[in-house]
Amino acid sequence: MSKLRQLLAKKKSENVLQEIQENTESAEIVKSSKFSVKENPVETAVSKEEDKNSVSAQVETSDSEEPEDLEIALESIGSKKEQEEPTKNKLSLSLGGSVFGKKSGDNAELDAIRSYQAIKSSIHSRLIEDLDVNALMQLEGTDSVENAIEETVHLLVEEERLPLSREERETLAQDVLYETLGLGPLEPLLSDPLINDILVNGADNVWIDQDGKLVETEIKFKDDNHLLHVINRIVSRVGRRVDESSPIVDARLPDGSRVNAIIPPLSLDGPTLSIRRFRPVPFHAGDLIAKGAISKEMSDFLELAVKARLNILISGGTSAGKTTLLNVLSSHISDRERIVTIEDTAELRLQQKHVVRLESRPANIEGQGAVNQRELVKNALRMRPDRIVVGEVRGPEALDMLQAMNTGHEGSLTTLHANSARDALSRLETLVLLSGVELSQKSIREQIGAAFDLVVQIKRLTDGARRVVSITEVTGVQEGVISMQELFKFKPGSADGGAGYHTACGIRPLVEKKIVDAGYKFPEGLLKEINPSATEQEGSSESGGELLE
């Protein structure tokens, strides 16, 4: 019988020692990646002493039980383990529900979020404190660094000994990884291609624009400082800053998404962040036609206009799709031309090979070093451009752009905020006056009438859909007034739910001669007016609610 007790004690001791060895090996794996967590000698000594005590306690227990034979003893050990495992799972589900799940009542839900944020902050702080920066710098490639950090995060989560399920541990480790390498709680939203805009109105209020409609999310930041840290991480990548002396900043993400941030004291409810997302793959003309944003005839006409080097102004309201349409039109420019783009915040993604991208720069902390769009337009004229593309005209650079268009730089494209084609030219006239140059109203209008050939108006409808609502030709100046004629227009549907449609106005454009002189054939029937009744019947069988990002 004493021999049997010795065998049982040996069996249990081997199981415990095997667990200790496995934990040690998992730690050694992370250390072998040249990226380890510093050990605390006091905690190590205590854990070793606890392991020894547990082994001796198990030996004493085996001596007191005195089973009749080895099989019965092993069965009792197995049944004891089976009884312990459900208890562990029960504890895991209980704590998981309080940390990750939803509770009834706002206070309970807020406490759960705060508990989870506290755990995440604790692990993240340990990761920052225990990082071996020298070992990190020796790793080659971004993937190696990310893998080493990910292994270390998983090790830290395990060391916390939290009664969480495997899935909850993975979620916690992933969130800590987002805090370390990404933009924290915003990373899941940035990885979703269906989200157009991310709007953060303080630490506890995050909205998204999906399919043209605003939806509130359950994502929350720890506090305003946490949100401010994420904003600083974004703007520092492009060499900009945001603080109380400069509380407004425009920036961009590596994928080209546009970012605007405004912080207190200007923002009364905490830091506010707006991210305008762009598709990983840019839109093409066929995509806009399929979504109903533009008709096939309008697309063909604009393609001819771009190839024939006509000057085009794209006008529309906020979030109407002006930049998207500008990207689509620029895709028709030949690869043999040198293109210079000028923007306040780089958003354009031209696909040609010979593209020079220029971006304005704000003043530094001393209030010096600012470079505005007007200076970039002047400099672009010395860069031998075939085309000048201005992302958006919003200041005195309008005068220099008009002069460039009237002095041989044809085929230029730009956008402007306005509610109609007529309003766009009026606003352009106002922007020219901001340049400070003494010009008469007649002179400004003559320059505008001679510079632009077409004005394309795009609008966001009440249902969230974006549509090109008109293409207007600028025919010149008559008796001091800029004359225009509409070539294409969008007719909205009836109040009972009828679908709207695009149609030509049946007017022969004056720019047809320029298109023919450039060597392109103007198709017959391109400007033929569509029969409304036939179009409504055809439109009722097609989906007209698709959105343009």
User: CATH superfamily membership of the largest domain, which one?
Assistant: P-loop containing nucleotide triphosphate hydrolases
Count of distinct strands:
15
Enumerate the strands of the largest sheet in spatial order, edge to edge or round the barrel.
9-8-10-11-7-12-13-14-15
Calculate the mean pLDDT score and round it.
75
Q: What count of structural domains?
A: 3
The CATH topology of the largest domain is given as: Rossmann fold
End-to-end separation in angstroms reads: 79 Å
The rounded Rg comes to 33 Å
The CATH class of the largest domain, by name, is: Alpha Beta
Question: What is the correct CATH architecture of the largest domain?
Answer: 3-Layer(aba) Sandwich
Question: Percent of residues in beta strands?
Answer: 15-25%
Structural class determined from secondary elements: alpha/beta
> Could you estimate the helical fraction of the residues in percent?
40-55%
Unreliable spans:
1-52, 54-105, 535-549
Question: How do the strands and helices of this protein lay out in sequence?
Answer:
Blueprint: H1 2-32, H2 41-65, H3 70-99, H4 106-130, H5 133-138, H6 142-159, H7 166-181, H8 187-190, E1 195-201, E2 206-210, E3 213-216, H9 224-236, E4 248-252, E5 258-262, E6 272-276, H10 285-290, H11 296-307, E7 312-316, H12 322-330, E8 339-343, E9 355-359, H13 373-380, E10 387-390, H14 397-405, E11 413-417, H15 421-433, H16 441-451, E12 454-460, E13 466-478, E14 481-491, E15 501-504, H17 512-517, H18 532-540
Parallel strand pairs: 7-11, 7-12, 8-9, 8-10, 10-11
Antiparallel strand pairs: 1-2, 1-6, 2-3, 4-5, 5-6, 12-13, 13-14, 14-15
Helix pairs in contact: 1-2, 4-6, 4-7, 6-7, 13-14, 15-16
